[in-house]
Amino acid sequence: MTKVITYGTFDLLHYGHIRLLERAKALGDYLIVGVTADDYDKSRGKINVKQPLIERVEAVRGTGLADEIIIEEYEGQKIDDVRRYGVDIFTVGSDWVGKFDYLKEYCQVVYLDRTEGISSSKLRTESRKIALGMTGDAPFLGKVKKEAEFVNGMEVTGLCAENRDRLPEPLGEIPYITSDYGRLLDRVDAVYIHSHPSDHYEQVKEALCRGKHVLCESPAALSRKQCVELFSLAKEKGLILMEALKTAYATAYSRLLLLVKTGKIGRLAAVDATCTSLEDLSGVGEEQLSSRWNSFCEWGPTAMLPIFQLLGTDYREKRIVSRFADRKKTYDTFTKVDLLYRDAVASLKVGKGVKSEGELVISGTRGYVYVPAPWWKTDYFEIRYENPAENKRCFYQLDGEGIRYELVAFVRSIERGRPNTYIERPVSEAIAGMMEDFYAGKDVREI
Ligand code: C2G
Predict the structure, then answer these.
(1) Which of 56, 149, 372, 373 is in the most buried spot, having the most CB atoms within 10 Å?
(2) Would strands 367-371 and 380-385 be described as parallel, antiparallel, or unpaired?
(3) What is the pLDDT of residues 171-219, one digit of tens each?
């Protein structure tokens, strides 16, 4: 009996896949099909896959061509499979010519001609793309524009910028550039807002009122009331409002939350998060300071994220300690927040005028999670125990600082017509509430 094996993602199964499977089957008597696991696809940069593993497996099963279906979960698995299943022939489409020659040591390798004119990517992009407009800080939006190119189903078509002549690449290539936010909204389906936090509420509201989906840099509002209002408005209008907090969309970060929530480190006692990035303020006048992102807006939401997601938003007491650079107390160079919960504590340290180790430590009764700096770009963390032999190290690929995944999540939410669960609404509200107290000087002490 000649055993044949082939692999693929088989997303939105089409006749190119079916023709490949038919010819693979004809090469022998028994066909094994390896379908890629979602995580494996993510780690090899395939982030736009539409169907979850289970649906893709069912589609392959539905062709009736596979005698056996297995899951491909890791790099190098093909060698293991060929040996484990006693495979005679490995086959794959001609788009991979040469790539799997290393398997010739174990079996025959056949590259079959790829079917022209059809592909999963083509099917994924055939439906009309979401036209995305952007507004705000140019260097950062440049990154978003670059990352959007990796995301199927979305296209950056508009930009609202004050200074149109001096735009950095790749922003200059955007087809429609205006300094009028209202006009931008007229031309797009959705908007990415990265303006100063004091403008967020008005801009989000205007976009929602005009029927546009919104991805807004966190904090989306500077008071709890305004935040509640914005999310209610989005819901009422059937629109997606999502906070752009890229850490929330990193695979390693979401796995970390799940591991902690399933009790891997026992009962939680403390969450401590630090985020800093030094900014040179020499020559910046007091007036200009108020138009800059202060430490608390820039880093506060990120540092609050693991605290609120793990311990909840129902803290009993808080103390905010800040050092300000201006008399109006709008620009903090450093802030430390301590939160007291019924049975746990949390602290966060953020700074643009103070440097510290940017780590995240989550302490529990059985062990702790350690995420090294810069923890907000999580791709690696350790679960550590009293007995180091039990320690676990976990790594998950992170591309584009998480912005890419955030955009994919935004597109998915729009397509499905319901918000995703990466950042729960009470978390967004608690972040806005914390901002409100900070600006009102409530529970704030100065150093
Ligand atoms: N294919 C084809 N013709 C097309 C599209 C795809 O013959 N028009 C073939 C591919 O060459 C591959 C199989 O169908 O052999 C599955 O394609 P994908 O789902 O795109 O999977 P791919 O990313 O090529 O995964 O470990 C994974 C494998 O290496 C291949």
Answers:
(1) 56
(2) antiparallel
(3) 988 999 999 999 999 999 999 999 999 999 999 999 999 999 999 999 9
Q: Which residue has the tokens 């803290």?
A: 315
User: Average pLDDT for residues 63-88, to the nearest whole number?
Assistant: 96
Distance 416 CA to ligand 1 centre (A): 26
**Atom 27, ligand 1: which residue's CA is nearest?**
8
In this prediction, residue 24 has a pLDDT band, given cuts at 50, 70 and 90, of very high
Give distance in angstroms: CA of 6 to centre of ligand 1: 9
Which pair of tokens denotes residue 301? 């939401």
CA distance 349 to 304: 10
- State whether the beta carbon of 119 lies less than 6 angstroms from ligand 1: yes
Two structure tokens written together for 392: 């676990």
- The CA 16 to ligand 1 mean position distance, Å, reads 8
Ordered alpha helix ranges (H), 85-180: 120-126, 138-148
Q: Which of 114, 115, 121 to mutate to test the pocket of ligand 1 (most atoms within 8 A of CB)?
A: 114
**Residue range 419-441, pLDDT digits in tens:** 988 999 999 999 999 999 999 99
Sign of CA dihedral 233, 239, 240, 243: negative
DSSP secondary structure, 292-337, as one string: S--HHHHHHHHHHHHHHHHH-S--SEEEEEEEESSTTS--EEEEEE
- Please calculate the CA angle 74-79-82 and round it to the nearest 5 degrees: 115
Measured distance CA(295)–CA(322) in Å, rounded: 10
Whether 145 and 170 have beta carbons less than 8 Å apart is answered as yes
Dist. CA 313–CA 307, nearest whole Å: 8
On the question of a cis peptide bond just before residue 219, with omega within 30 degrees of 0, the verdict is yes
Q: Which two tokens stand for residue 119?
A: 């592909």
Q: How far is residue 217's CA from residue 432's CA, in Å, rounded to a whole number? A: 12
How far apart CA 154 and CA 189 sit, in angstroms, is: 10
Cα angle 194-126-130, degrees, rounded to a multiple of 5: 20
pLDDT band, residue 77 (cuts 50/70/90): very high
Q: How many residues does the chain have?
A: 447
How do 213-217 and 190-194 pair as beta strands? parallel
Question: Is ligand 1 within 6 A of the CB of residue 8?
Answer: yes
* Residue of minimum CA distance from atom 13 in ligand 1: 8
The pTM assigned to this predicted structure is: 0.88
Cβ-contact 407, 154 below 8 angstroms: yes
